[in-house]
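Entry under discussion copied across for reference:
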Amino acid sequence: MKFAIATAMALLSAATTASAGPFQAIARLIQLAESRLDSQGAIFFMTNQPDENVIMAASIGRDGSLTLEKAIAAGGRGLHGIASPPGADGLFSQGGIQASTKGQVLATVNAGSNTISLFSINPRSPTDITPLGDPVSSEGEFPMSLTFNSAGTRLCVLNGGAVSSVNCFNVDKKLGLVSIPNSRRELSLNQTTPPSGPPGTASQIVFNHDESKLIASVKGNPPAVGFLAIWDVASDGSLSSEFTKMDTVSGGSLTFSLTPIPGKNAFVSTDPGVGFAILDLDDFSKSSAIAIPGQGATCWSSFSPKTGNFFLSDANTAIITEVHVDSNLKGSIVKQYPLGPNAATIDNDVATINGKDFFFVMAAQAASVDVLALNGPGNAKRAFTMNITTSARRAGLTIDPLSLQGMTQFIRQ
């Protein structure tokens, strides 16, 4: 990918080793549009292309509308997993790029370089991000998912390639990412680099509700079922030497996302083999699998605090499914929202702006981001669509729609 440099800014200068050969990251940023005065925050996603991974930053207006403002060199290469037929979601995961509101930082994987890059976020102008330290080794192969602790002071990565593992870092505002001793732990998935999937691949890494556990979800390769790998987390951030394995519930197989259920030690977990599952870490007997009729690849999920519901995206049908989970951890489908054929809706996130929730979803095949205004339970309306290629083309950027990946938000402070 070649950039027509529109704004000369020194962002980063680091040499990393990519699986495709040596890669010299060049300090650069492209200003795609003027910063909007009514910006309430930003969304971030990445190109994940094998020649270079680029972070795209779009500002959010009061009405949830988006303006694609900046393209920032991530400092490494992207990489697409092996699938037949090839399609969107090259990382086979959720959480490849993550922002921390409290920490005011952004992190992204560079799957083709086996590195992670960290940036500080300007809280008053969130599309302005600045590298913190150099990209660091993920200490595994094919990094695919990231999670911050609630304070934004620690970051953990899930590696899903031939060297499959988890690893954690302290977030240092001067040095960047500093590896935590005794936090690198093997997952041993018997995979390749890049991995073949989606079945049999890792999916997402998260902390549980009190951050006493670090959890990685893994898809089954039928007839084998999916499972959770759960490590104990010590006060210094180190992990137990072995993980506890928890198989998914009966009827599930392709354990994908892990979205926390507020007030519970439990998760909504998408499962393209059935629809979704409720996974209760305190009492597994309360766990259940719920079918979504007609679904094809329901793999990504986010929680809306204003509606109290979860929103799940399906790459095959491009349908967003709204789900409610009651106090007894019983899940039900509230409503579905078709976003049109050939959109390939993948990664998503929810942001609260002026007391109202908005749902942002990557429509990879259409090379766009769709925005739904969540006006209340069962009342989501499409509010805006941002075309990615139009702005990119004006700046000389070439976008491969099927490589687009990730979705995370940061609201102005």
User: Anything to note?
Assistant: The first strand starts at residue 15 and ends at 18. The radius of gyration is 19 Å. The helical segments are 388-394.
